[in-house]
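Quick note —
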Amino acid sequence: MFYKMLLYRIESWVSAEKDVLANLCNIAALLYDNIDDINWAGFYLMKNGELVLGPFGGKAACTRIKIGKGVCGTTARDRITYVVPNVHEFEGHIACDSASNSEIVVPIIKDDVLYGVLDIDSPNFNRFDEVDKLYLEKLIEKLNKYIDWNEVAKIN
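Predicted structure written out below.
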């Protein structure tokens, strides 16, 4: 029920606003403020062949991530959602915040083009599960319905 209400709230925001940056900022804030036991929620967006930090909630984060590096870069490379119960066991994990112990990263793909990833971190081990995966993937589907990801490249 929690995720259904959250998706409803997010859809009501993005369906009424066309500005990509405004939408991504509000989505990151809604995720950060409403998902329990997390310490970071936000976006990394594809620019010039790498992931670049986008709107987020939480402590300052890594600015650029190469494709194939860390959980975010691996998600971008493999184009699948990664649910990582213990980031310290993930080969090549990038520790932007040493307090993070688990992570979920969902690729943002529309029309077979990778536009970035949605990244959520938690200080708890084993924080994320298949329910989180299902609904965060549904969130990306909703965003794809309303957001023109090509506009992201225009944000400087």
